[in-house]
Fold this sequence. Notes:
Blueprint: H1 8-19, E1 23-29, E2 39-44, H2 48-64, E3 71-73, E4 80-84, E5 88-93, H3 95-101, H4 103-106, E6 112-116, E7 119-125
Parallel strand pairs: 2-5
Antiparallel strand pairs: 1-2, 1-6, 3-4, 4-5, 6-7
Helix pairs in contact: 1-2
Amino acid sequence: MTDDAPPEVVRRVGELALERKALDVVALDLRGISSATDFFVLASGASDVQVKAVANHIVDELKKEGQRPAHVEGLEGGRWVLLDYIDVVVHVFHPEARDFYQLESLWGDAPREVFADDGPVGSVGSPADSPAP
């Protein structure tokens, strides 16, 4: 990510998503790129049931820590759940929905952090920072 460390809630969301076996958990740092929010955290579930389980787990655990979403969308359907924590917006997708909407490509210039089961993999910059194949 950028020199400014992301807020703890970004890392916490990544950890919570992984606790429910979410796939491809990535945080995008939108500070300086978008005025809508500071961070997106993206995650996928292998099924509608898993998408809902990941989203519910994030909401339930952050609520215990005093964080409540300002808005929740899509929880009934399970294809794409949006959890709006104002400065951090969490998107939990069914893989086909994630492929269709391509938020990583839309925000391709955003620095990103990839999460793995043993914690954040670290800053990987933006795709523009990567050498061409």
